[in-house]
Amino acid sequence: MAARVIKALCIGCGVCAQMCPHGAIAVLVKTASVDSMLCDECEECVFACPNGAITI
Ligand code: SF4
Ligand code: SF4
């Protein structure tokens, strides 16, 4: 499973997109979204998110 954003918790800060080593996260309309084809489940974004808005 790729990383998944819990939209209700995401504030669109963009930290996860900056941290992702595979460029798998884009922040559109103040909510992050993950491209499951690019995500390798490294969990960098899970640890980086200040709101606990990403799970794997
Ligand atoms: S780091 Fe968390 S709160 Fe910030 S854009 Fe990513 S998922 Fe949303
Ligand atoms: S788990 Fe890793 S590869 Fe997948 S979106 Fe998060 S930082 Fe990017």
TrEMBL record:
Source domain of life: Bacteria
**InterPro entries in UniProt:** 4Fe4S_Fe-S-bd, 4Fe4S_Fe_S_CS
Q: Does the keyword Metal-binding apply?
A: yes
One Pfam family name is Fer4
Q: Which UniProt keywords apply?
A: Iron, Iron-sulfur, Metal-binding
Q: Which residue intervals define the domain 4Fe-4S ferredoxin-type in the entry? A: 1-30, 32-56
Provide a Gene Ontology MF annotation, just one: metal ion binding
- Tell me which positions the record assigns to the signal sequence: none
Which PROSITE patterns would you find in this protein's record? Answer: 4FE4S_FER_1, 4FE4S_FER_2
Protein known as? Dissimilatory sulfite reductase (Desulfoviridin), alpha/beta subunit
Organism of origin: Desulfoscipio gibsoniae DSM 7213
